[in-house]
Amino acid sequence: MRALNIYPQFQHTDPSTQTRKDFVTDQDVRWCPGCGDYSILAQVQRVMPTLGIPRENYVFVSGIGCSSRFPYYMETFGIHSIHGRAPAVATGVKAMRPDLSVWVVTGDGDALSIGGNHFMHVLRRNVDLKLLMFNNQIYGLTKGQYSPTSPVGKKAKSTPMGSIDYPIDPISVALGANGTFIARSFDVHASHLQNILKRAAEHKGTAFVEIYQNCNIFNDGAFSLLTEKETKSDHVIEIEHGKPLRFGKNLEKGIALDASLTPKVVDVASYGEDKLFVYDETSEIAALIVSRLHAPEFPVPIGVFRAVSRPSYDALLVDQIDRAKKGKRETVQELLDDGQWTVK
Amino acid sequence: MRALNIYPQFQHTDPSTQTRKDFVTDQDVRWCPGCGDYSILAQVQRVMPTLGIPRENYVFVSGIGCSSRFPYYMETFGIHSIHGRAPAVATGVKAMRPDLSVWVVTGDGDALSIGGNHFMHVLRRNVDLKLLMFNNQIYGLTKGQYSPTSPVGKKAKSTPMGSIDYPIDPISVALGANGTFIARSFDVHASHLQNILKRAAEHKGTAFVEIYQNCNIFNDGAFSLLTEKETKSDHVIEIEHGKPLRFGKNLEKGIALDASLTPKVVDVASYGEDKLFVYDETSEIAALIVSRLHAPEFPVPIGVFRAVSRPSYDALLVDQIDRAKKGKRETVQELLDDGQWTVK
Amino acid sequence: MQKVVETVSTVAIRFAGDSGDGMQVTGSQFTDTTALAGNDLATFPDFPAEIRAPAGSLAGVSGFQIKFSSEAVFTPGDAPDVLVAMNPAALKVNLKDLKPGGMLIANSEAFTKKNIDYAGYATNPLEDGSLTGFKVFKADITGMTLKAVEELKLNNRHAVRCKNFFALGIVYWLYGREASHTVEWIKSKFKDPQLCEANLRALKAGYHFGETAELFDRSYEVKQAKIAPGRYRNISGNEALSLGFLAAAELSGLELFLGSYPITPASDILHELASHKQLGVRTFQAEDEIAAVCSAIGAAYSGALALTTTSGPGLALKSEGIGLALMLELPLVIVDVQRAGPSTGMPTKTEQADLLQAMYGRNGEAPVAVIAAKSPGDCFYTAIEACRIAVTHMMPVILLSDGFIANSAEPWRIPEMASLPKIPVKFWTEKEGFQPYARDENLARPWALPGSPGLEHRIGGIEKEHLTGNISYDAANHELMSKLRYERLQKIADALPPTEIEGDQAGDLLVIGWGDTYGPIQAGVEAVRKSGSKIGHVQLRWLNPFPNDLEAIMKRYKRVLVPEINLGQLVKLLRAKYLVDAKSFPKIQGQPFKESEIVFAIKQILEAN
Amino acid sequence: MQKVVETVSTVAIRFAGDSGDGMQVTGSQFTDTTALAGNDLATFPDFPAEIRAPAGSLAGVSGFQIKFSSEAVFTPGDAPDVLVAMNPAALKVNLKDLKPGGMLIANSEAFTKKNIDYAGYATNPLEDGSLTGFKVFKADITGMTLKAVEELKLNNRHAVRCKNFFALGIVYWLYGREASHTVEWIKSKFKDPQLCEANLRALKAGYHFGETAELFDRSYEVKQAKIAPGRYRNISGNEALSLGFLAAAELSGLELFLGSYPITPASDILHELASHKQLGVRTFQAEDEIAAVCSAIGAAYSGALALTTTSGPGLALKSEGIGLALMLELPLVIVDVQRAGPSTGMPTKTEQADLLQAMYGRNGEAPVAVIAAKSPGDCFYTAIEACRIAVTHMMPVILLSDGFIANSAEPWRIPEMASLPKIPVKFWTEKEGFQPYARDENLARPWALPGSPGLEHRIGGIEKEHLTGNISYDAANHELMSKLRYERLQKIADALPPTEIEGDQAGDLLVIGWGDTYGPIQAGVEAVRKSGSKIGHVQLRWLNPFPNDLEAIMKRYKRVLVPEINLGQLVKLLRAKYLVDAKSFPKIQGQPFKESEIVFAIKQILEAN
Ligand SMILES: Cc1ncc(C[n+]2csc(CCOP(=O)(O)OP(=O)(O)O)c2C)c(N)n1
Ligand SMILES: Cc1ncc(C[n+]2csc(CCOP(=O)(O)OP(=O)(O)O)c2C)c(N)n1
Ligand code: SF4
Ligand code: SF4
Ligand SMILES: [Mg+2]
Ligand SMILES: [Mg+2]
What we know:
The complex is a heterotetramer, with 2 copies of chain A and 2 copies of chain C.
Chain A: H1 37-47, E1 58-62, E2 77-80, H2 86-96, E3 101-107, H3 108-114, H4 116-125, E4 130-135, H5 170-176, E5 181-186, H6 190-202, E6 207-212, H7 224-227, H8 229-235, E7 236-239, E8 246-247, E9 253-257, E10 263-267, H9 268-271, H10 284-291, E11 300-307, H11 313-326, H12 332-337, E12 341-343
Chain C: E1 4-8, E2 10-18, H1 23-36, E3 40-46, E4 61-69, E5 82-85, H2 88-94, E6 103-107, H3 113-118, E7 135-139, H4 141-149, H5 156-160, H6 163-174, H7 180-189, H8 193-212, E8 218-222, E9 230-236, H9 237-252, E10 255-260, H10 267-274, E11 282-285, H11 289-301, E12 304-310, H12 312-328, E13 332-338, H13 355-360, E14 369-372, H14 378-393, E15 396-402, H15 403-407, E16 409-413, E17 458-460, H16 475-494, E18 502-503, E19 507-514, H17 518-529, E20 535-540, E21 542-544, H18 550-555, E22 557-564, H19 570-578, E23 583-586, H20 595-607
Parallel strand pairs in C: 1-8, 2-5, 5-6, 6-7, 10-11, 10-12, 12-13, 13-15, 14-15, 19-20, 19-22, 22-23
Antiparallel strand pairs in C: 2-4, 3-4, 9-16, 14-21, 18-20
The complex binds thiamine diphosphate (2 copies), iron/sulfur cluster (2 copies) and magnesium ion (2 copies).
């Protein structure tokens, strides 16, 4: 049948020899000084060498935006594609080459405005790729228009009287699309972000990580409530599988559900720890409930909202091909010959 | 300021004089004999005259697909636009003309495949329009490829070995996008559909109605479990605000939540009616839980999943304009004169 | 009664009926059988726009025309000699095309009051004397079919459905065709033994009816054509494209990837390729055309023979993605099976009005290769050629087909895979000397796959520095890269074989066509050449770049004529590039050219001054 | 020391520094003041691609050039006479353009080892003798600024930021400019009184430094230009487009709707129009370009003066939507502020390479009107003209601007709204005789708004029957409608005024340009005409349709030259249509033409026999 095998075989890099430096390119990083993207880049470059994957087997695909410049700074394979389409490009990469570790880097505008449809479809198909969305609640590269995640009332270049568009919650959308791995972290929370990146990397299927990122030029301080020392412990809650939902400086506060399943903030001591809502990352309902917690009324959840297993698109595709190859064994010539007659 | 008012003023039709016949066009209906679209058309034509809106104030906007031929059969204003874009076209109509009653008719492919992004954005913006999605779980017009709502394993023209794409649940996506009115009905359930259409019409904001529709040519019987006399009462549950979730021939079965909030089917008599899940269409959590009920394990819910109020995009837009007009009163000439100097 | 057998050289038959009447099956069965009988032939299926229009409506009429001959056949024929009309609507829609004095076989039972009204006739045309110009044969096809299958006790719907085979049987008898191919086909197609038997009986009954009834006093014989010996099959354009891509994959050793979104009339390529997973083909039905082209870009980057298929509105949506592929300099074949536009247009009708979109439908100076297939069978070779150029030049190639080529079938000589030239592909593997935008003799950059140690690199849609591929906003570099992107096309032209000219190699008129106008132009040119004019015919496969010898060829003729199924697109390109006063002969009716129209145009231009 | 005041007629100055250095503000302040002083002028801002590139990097250099004169000014100048370089990177990037013998004012303190290295210099260019060809003035601008604002005890970052006003102060002194406009501007701009005071002090200190320091032995005077009396302002292309659309709304009585998605360099139009809700403007920032154009279509259907604004990649995405607008025959203005392509290209650089996309970037035969603005101020009138055609001809109009026009500013005579012709719009209101696709003398169909009793009708992207607008697959109807869609364009041409020719009305050479090449062509043509050649210059506003008189005009000249910032697009259209041997003079470097380049091209073609 297929006579040739023209695809090259390589002796791969030993992943255990890789260090952070191996993932740094020679290109000047061109983000604004102080941009949250720097920290994210640093964490990704720290995590990549630890995953047991040879450097050459990584592909970073991005769209357009400040965040989407990311691939240029990663000494891996990379495609800086067009606005909003990175998930589609990455799907093609992964469908062809399930052996590669494919990472999509995108922004809130790239992923949820122009790219919202691809975002939804990649999640529902569960293509095995890692999707990092840098959410700065603004269009950075085009100099400061509001984005789909900007809050109502946001005054930006295109909304001098304040935005009237109710924002999209990326986690809710990802749950609505039945994503199998959904998480959130921060640019500046280095250790947390690293952990989440590792969990994402281990997940088989689309792993979506929303990363709150400060754009210090056009939307400075959008997350300061969540990152400033004085306020963060009262406004951020780390969700962890199997643990009750607690937060506050001394974890003195918790989340519980009332009779109508509405979450409420309670005082742990008086309410009783055993009555707190215990997180289960495999429960869709739990994820749905927690995804609806928004500041300032509630603490903002970070961590893994959902992690369940479902066959990935690429695995199912390979499986169909393998089965087909075992089944009918037509060659191209046989297909050509179909319905033939001979003229003498 | 604005000197001219060139927009015509009309004496509007008295809505109380309108009948179903007034909404029927002279065009031959070109759906396949037996198509579920006929019934939907009939219900819409029955409901329209009852809404107190003059016929000329209706605009039906559609994309492309069998379903999207709908406007040609409605004696109202109408745009048969391009594939997937009807919500965007309709947003333009409504943004300009909040006085009109704008209806979008779309299919599962039109709304959720190519048009998924506009679908999501119109819902989150809550533009005041009614979005009827005929879900036949297939591409009808292009002769039978699987659609985003087709189940895994669906054998269709483009999936001879069965689909490997995990389907999209339209209600879940709509909830993820924070839609304010979300409902489901059937082509053949005339009275139910009429009621839902009326509720949708009354809603201020985007009213999304998923209508299961039989494509008897390319996907015949996709919903037969839900529509056949013998099976339907065991496989369909009508959700109603304030009422416990019950179904079965004699409403002998119910839905309750277990400790981990997972829904289960219970026998009402033995379980106790008071322990059933009582539906609250204003509760997002209730909608989220019920939206995840799928056949055959659970009965399929129909009715209004969610109805909450949030200012609509068009209302907010008009409000900003009104406020701006009250504020600074520059004319175009004044804007032109800005920064002027005089050369003599 | 012993009936006469008259020998004729060429016949065109049109089968017309309701879309539920199975006219496409009837037509293709007649085609297969006719091909087996050794005639040359060409076909034209003409579908209604609706999936299932109401029975008996004008909108629901489906037609299939075939011309077959003992001579060479170039087109499905202008005016059919025979019209088989299964109901009044079919008659109404098609009668205007029937040749004066032509034969009309009408299913008389379908001419009920209701159907006659529905078709917009005031009176029954079979009775009111309006058909006097034709040889009318009224046959109660439905009734006789029902009788033929009576014993099988089918329900009425199923029984009536057999009537197309009855009609086919009549025509088989009329043209002395062997029914055996169709018998085999029916047996393999109808799993239900009752239905199978019913259709067989209807076929036989129709044949028998022709033979015995007094209706026909003669039958016809069309002798074998002189056809090159070899193995043949029928093939439609969409089948041939699909097979061509499979062949290109085998010839190159690459894995095939198709990212596509369904659209008429291109969907069949997706369907066909999806059914060949055993050959390793990966098909991805994307959420839209943009995702389709972008997934193919990702696959190309990863080492696939990457395709995306669509029609005009989809090509519009892919504009931005094609621009990206061009900047990335990745191999990608984009198939546009054109349909009548603009916008949604007439999706089931043919047109070749996307040429300028293919050339220019992208922002910036964004040249890509453009190639067109001229016939169903030619689609196979065009597909292979497009793939060859894409991978050896690292460039997107737009392949233009159209609704007519896509759906019509022709007998086609089967090529031997072993004798087709291989498509050499070499991936870059060496760390030493690797630069993502260094170029080979074709100005093609290296194809370096992810997974290749030491070849890590980034590419993107921003202007890139020559050689390194790094982002560059340098003025001179942008000019260099912009010009290189054009020179890359010239390299294709430099490697093309001499352009083939049919007819006269110099003289009064050169007719230049592209795509599906091939047959009609050939026929028209041959017809007029008989009267002594010196006419050459070039059917351009390559539209971007043009062949290097085209200018010299044009100069050998006094005039240049460019017939197109649009309002004049190729003609614009020729005039702009060569400053030659090429004349456009446009037709834009959702239909291919007729031979007579080409003859008219040629005569007109020859007679003008 | 009493310093000399030398009178000069024309000066070009370029301010260059880090993007954080405020060079754009400096440039526009100098522009405003120069305009107030009565000089003619033209400007060219040149931004870095990055939002904030690292301080001191080559990528982060931001420039602003202004040419001002007592004569007429057509371009911002080829080589500046004066370069103000705030750091080594700014020097590195810009020195190559400085006129031999030109004046270089360098902020010496910024020439630190680190910055010098970063800019890629081996040694300090201010010290190593490499600048001998220029008049070099080293001034410790940063240090002197810090000293000037010392008392205010600002933090260092804020204090350093005032240095651009110090530099401006120097240049104000050098050219004898009044600082009062800038003083007012600083007062209104800086709400913080400390910062306000600091900037004022820096400005004053700079001026004073020029006056007193021994560095400069003379200052310069540029006399007032002969400028038509009237009220003037500075205006950039994007401002002028925005104001033009507001004016068109007022002139027509229509409500303005803009559906847009941000993209460089078009976003400012969205920003500007969004800030005028008091005029009833509805701006909708859509989720993408497709939604943007589709929302505008919906708004047009509903009676808006509907716009959508974008740049090349966005126009690509709007292709399908524009095709729909064309089929619906609705008025719609699509603005493409072009940038360097293809694909993402160089977003902050200018180009005019979307013309063919505008013409042909849609499936099928899909003609739309195409119009181009030739200068910042001309954008105002072009916007009005586009709106007028859109609503009177019921058709989409693509308006082409570009990054250069969009961002550069020129002094512009303010029109009086009351004296601009109204745009007559008449909605159809009568039930009697209403047919959605009946046509008036312009072949425009009626604009019948939803809400009009008795006018209920449906429109769509499928081919429609003449007059009724019902779906039609009829062959003859499709041809009729396809041709009508072209004839509709011809109606525009028929109503155009005679084409304006600058320079000689007949003779050796006609230079045809479009868009932002206006200034350089004008300058180049004037320069060569002085040496006696007879040269005419036509800057085409209408690109589709071409003016009816264009062919006759071309015939009046021996040769035709078409300079374009692309690889030859208009020239293709002219050659194809008129079969005229128009020569292309392409430049594709992300930069506008220089006068000298046009002069070169003209001389070359005149000399080539
Ligand atoms: C087709 C297209 N439309 C618009 C743009 C302009 N554009 C570039 S990035 C961007 C949005 C960036 O926002 P986000 O995705 O949030 O990324 P950030 O810059 O904030 O990281 C836009 C609108 C483009 N490049 N291409
Ligand atoms: C841009 C574009 N792509 C593809 C198509 C082809 N197309 C028409 S309708 C359709 C899908 C129809 O499915 P659905 O929306 O479910 O509607 P249905 O016919 O089932 O009612 C497709 C793919 C098109 N018309 N335009
Ligand atoms: S504009 Fe904002 S997001 Fe972009 S690089 Fe600068 S700080 Fe970061
Ligand atoms: S194809 Fe299916 S959905 Fe379309 S009209 Fe026919 S039955 Fe209805
Ligand atoms: Mg962002
Ligand atoms: Mg469907």
